[in-house]
Amino acid sequence: MDSVSKVDIAGVGALAGQRVRIGCWMTRRRSSGKIQFLQLRDGTGFIQGVLVKEEVDGETWEKAGQLTQESSLYVTGTVREEPRSPSGYELAVDGIDIIQIATDYPITPKEHGVDFLMDHRHLWLRAPRQRAILRIRAEIISAVQRFFDERGFTLVDPPVLTPSAAEGTTNLFHTKYFDEDAYLTQSGQLYMEAAAMALGKVYSFGPTFRAEKSKTRRHLIEFWMIEPEMAFVDHEENLRVQEEFVSYVVGQVLEHCRPELAVLERDVSKLEQVKAPFPRISYDEAIDMLKEDGMELPWGEDFGAPHETLIAEKFDRPVFITRYPTEIKAFYMKPDPDRPEVVLCADMIAPEGYGEIIGGSQRIDDPELLEARFDEHQLPREAYEWYLDLRKYGTVPHSGFGLGLERTVAWICGLDHVRETIPFPRMLYRLYP
Ligand code: 4AD
Fold it and tell me: To test the ligand 1 pocket, which listed residue (162, 183, 225, 344) has its Cβ within 8 A of the most ligand atoms?
């Protein structure tokens, strides 16, 4: 018997005329009585297997006939060019080793409700649309890392179990840490500030937990955040890094993920407009814009999804809303020296109604002001002594931000809901599978 090399479907283009073996699943079978067509998938791509009854042995013909949706097999055959196939190739099958015949695969080509699909998320991931989303998510992650690695940032991992809150105490996940109380991280930021004082420019990428009882299309209980932190960087410089960063990530997806964007039927012309610089409007200007459009909001209140959407509709690329009221923002944000009732912060609002994807700010560097903020916010000093030390021993102006990965994936992929942006979403009322 001649030796046949085991290959990935993605690589068959270079192997026309050769005999190959592929480990795969069968997704669909059609038969005309004299010819069987097998739609085969190995995770790297699709290929159509063709069996002509008169040309294959009876056993192979019969095995092909037994294959049901999601049955697993090794197939052998010769790769040949086929201009009518989407990949340009097909496989003239001459041998089949069945691994398992799958019976009653629950996800069929008919329409299923979202709850059913979420209950079968472990299988739903095999659908072309879900695979396209996961590929784009992976490209975004690698583009994020390239962007920061190429610009002299060091990747640093903050802890997941923490003794205190970073972003307010209302949505903390509590757990026991032996005899102590502990919380799952809400943001690595405070630790990243310590790392920036050691390494200058740092970023983290990790899971984040918020026990938010919000059942919206933008909220997850467990999500992934990218958090850069930079010493000697002020508010304006921070915004410039953010717009360069987001433009780069979108550009990389456009460069590397055209087939996946096509599967999702994403209007790429919208993404092609995403180029720095991004517009900047102040919180005050945003309030005025909303009023003009009949959506009045008293000064000092935070924006909700409808407000963000209305503002975003006025721009063809992400927009920064800057200088929010000090009252509604986190304790560590630096007040504007000319106007202390607002802070040097910005939220980046994605276009097309996808809402806030980045929250960031310049941090308070003055030790006395930071201490006063702890008292105002009634935060337990003991848990934060280490954080106050950062202002005692060589404090410097510094800034940073956090980009929510899933909201960014939802926007770039053009998805209605963040639940499809992560392999196994954790949402209010969903911990399974
Ligand atoms: O605005 P947030 O709360 O900012 C912080 O946590 C800062 N400490 C970040 C920093 O400066 N290092 O969250 C940042 C981003 C949001 O813009 C959003 O994209 C995402 O995290 N996010 C969520 N994504 C999904 N589900 C949730 N429940 C989210 N909460 C925030």
Answer: 225
